[in-house]
Amino acid sequence: MEERKLNFTRNEDPTIVEDKDGKIAKKIEKIYKDICFNLGFCYEQLKEGNLTEGMKETHLSLTEGYVLNFLDELGYEGVLKKKKDEMYSDIRSLNNENRELRRQLGEKVSNEDVREKLKNISNIIKKWWNIYGFGHVSDISYTEYGAVKLILSGSICHAYRDDTQKAPTDAEKAEYLVKLGFKISLKDRGNVLFTDGNYILLDKMLKEKYPSSTIANIRGHEWGNELSMREIEVYIHNLDDLKNE
Question: How far apart are CA 136 and CA 156, in angstroms?
């Protein structure tokens, strides 16, 4: 089963447009000349390096008005409205069909398959954050709209365990993060400081791994005159970011 695509077609009607006594042509002749003169003037100013932002807006605003008058004289305004209404109707119909298709596909998947898939996704995220991130994933949940919600620990720790890959120690992880540019607390090497620079680096790290991710919130922890990251709330909106590795 495949989702239906929107169908865009071209009007192939060979009927000649009626213009008794050339009345329509006479009406649009001046409009046509105004369009050509206005765009020609705009082009010459641009070519000579004299076109200002203000004049550009004036030229384009006038041209838009002339073109709308041109379309109106040829009776195209009604065609545009009809096409727009038909397109919106097709989009609504397509969305309804695709929602029903997804519902049917969802019913064919067993709950056991879903459970195992979610477990695999969770393990992939935990493995990455433990080895290449700060260390510990506090919580993973899934929203009704298909996004993944993560609560990541801002503290450095080597919580990951895997027989095939050795987890870095806390000291190694801190050294690795410093090389990436992160600022680490001088009082406690297990804390990543809550600074603008660290926020930018964290967002970059997450987006390089999960392009659709967004940082929703960071809860900080103040100790003396230092503010460090404690919990990081992240959403991954596109599940294709979470393919098996």
Answer: 8
The residue written with tokens 């993944």 in the block is 148
Q: 3-state SS of 100-119?
A: HHHHHHHHHCCHHHHHHHHH
Residues 23, 81: Cα–Cα separation, whole Å: 24
Is the pTM here over 0.90, yes or no? no
3-class secondary structure, 20: helix
Integer CA distances (angstroms), 132 to 85, 173, 176, 189, 205, in order: 50, 8, 9, 17, 9
Q: Which secondary-structure segment (H or E) carries 152?
A: strand 148-156
Give, for all 245 residues of the chain, the pLDDT tens digit.
455 565 556 767 788 888 878 888 888 888 898 889 989 999 999 999 989 999 999 988 888 888 888 888 887 766 556 666 666 676 777 777 766 666 665 566 666 766 787 888 888 898 888 888 888 888 999 887 778 999 998 888 866 555 556 667 788 888 889 999 999 887 777 788 999 999 999 999 999 999 999 999 999 888 778 888 889 999 999 888 887 55
